[in-house]
């Protein structure tokens, strides 16, 4: 059954040495939505610069990222291991500048440091020293957490999302700490962001379709993200029944795509999966544009 939900954009920020952890955080957020969104009436939408930004020439690269996704995000999850990142000219790294943007806007930053073992021969000593220095500074400005394995990060993040959802849902935090964040102002801007994100997901889906080797499981991950975006649109109820019906039908279509099986049939089911995926994403964008007209 459809349900109303408040959507919060959660940007995943980190240097380049924690790719596995970035993927794990995104998948954990999506799984949390599946299991908890209806109960809490809220959805966390994972945002990553490599997925949610568009090419833009003529401005400082980090400023492009800031303007396209950071200032539209509500929560930041930051991850560090052995690298702090490269200076942006305004901060010691892109991740640090993104954190500063969020904090200056009064938004929540959730910070995690990896303590897993690394190959000492591959570590940049200066970068590692910069991370340790930043960790010390961060300890004086707030609370952060650490993990030694990706599994531990997933488990901790799931618990933290539960606590965060309770605070956003109007419940008192179990530890008694102030865990409130600025509630996002969602109206037409929410729909505009959804249109942009679905367009970006369609682009990613087509890249995955045309890549080598092709991975339909990654295609399904992309489609699940789009489904989460549409679920969040129940917070903006349309004034006409046709658009509401279209949204419901699209959610059903996304569920079917997630259950779509690839068989040894000469490639026919494989082709049908990618064709149908593009069609559903196209239809999602069109429906969101109609929703914007009647919201």
H/E element order: EHEHHEHEHEHHHHH
The second-level CATH architecture of the largest domain is: 3-Layer(aba) Sandwich
* % residues in beta strands: 5-15%
Rg from C-alpha positions?
20 Å
What's the CATH first level of the largest domain? Answer: Alpha Beta
Got a strand count? 5
- Spatial separation of the terminal alpha carbons: 21 Å
| Class computed from helices, strands and strand pairing | alpha/beta
Q: What is the 3D form?
A: globular
- Count of separate DSSP helical elements: 10
Cross-sheet strand order for the largest sheet: 2-1-3-4-5
CATH topology of the largest domain: Rossmann fold
Mean pLDDT: 85
Please give a structural write-up.
The structure is a single chain. The protein has 295 residues and is of the alpha/beta class. The protein folds into two domains: 163 residues, Rossmann fold (3-Layer(aba) Sandwich); 107 residues, Four Helix Bundle (Hemerythrin (Met), subunit A) (Up-down Bundle). Helix content is 56%, strand content 10%. The protein contains ten helices and five strands; from the N terminus they run βαβααβαβαβααααα. It has a five-stranded parallel beta sheet, sandwiched between helices. α5 links the parallel β4 and β5. α7 packs antiparallel against α10, α8 runs antiparallel to α9 and α9 packs antiparallel against α10. About 6% of the residues have low confidence.
């Amino acid at each position: 059954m459809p349900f109303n939900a408040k959507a919060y954009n959660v940007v995943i920020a980190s240097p380049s040495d924690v790719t596995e952890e970035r993927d794990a955080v995104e998948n954990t957020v999506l799984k949390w939505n599946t299991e908890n969104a209806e109960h809490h009436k809220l959805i966390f939408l994972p945002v990553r610069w490599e997925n949610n930004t568009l090419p833009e020439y003529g401005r400082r690269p980090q400023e492009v990222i800031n303007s396209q996704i950071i200032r539209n995000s509500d929560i930041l999850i930051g991850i560090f291991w052995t690298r702090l990142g490269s200076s942006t000219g305004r901060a010691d790294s892109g991740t640090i500048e993104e954190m500063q943007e969020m904090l200056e806007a009064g938004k929540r930053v959730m910070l995690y440091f990896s303590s897993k073992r690394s190959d000492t021969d591959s570590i940049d000593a200066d970068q590692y020293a910069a991370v340790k220095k930043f960790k010390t500074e961060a300890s004086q400005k707030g609370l952060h957490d650490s993990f030694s394995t990706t599994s531990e990060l997933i488990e901790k993040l799931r618990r933290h999302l539960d606590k965060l959802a309770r605070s956003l849902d109007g419940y008192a935090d179990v530890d008694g700490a102030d865990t409130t964040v600025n509630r996002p102002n969602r109206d037409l801007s929410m729909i505009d962001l959804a249109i942009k994100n679905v367009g970006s997901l369609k682009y990613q889906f087509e890249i995955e379709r045309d890549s080598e080797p092709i991975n339909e499981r990654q295609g399904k991950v992309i489609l699940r993200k789009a489904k989460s975006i549409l679920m969040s649109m129940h917070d903006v109820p349309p004034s006409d029944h046709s658009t509401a019906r279209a949204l419901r039908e699209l959610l059903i279509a996304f569920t079917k795509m997630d259950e779509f099986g690839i068989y040894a049939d000469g490639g026919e089911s494989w082709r049908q999966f990618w064709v149908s995926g593009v069609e559903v994403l196209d239809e999602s964008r069109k429906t969101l544009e109609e929703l914007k007209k009647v919201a």
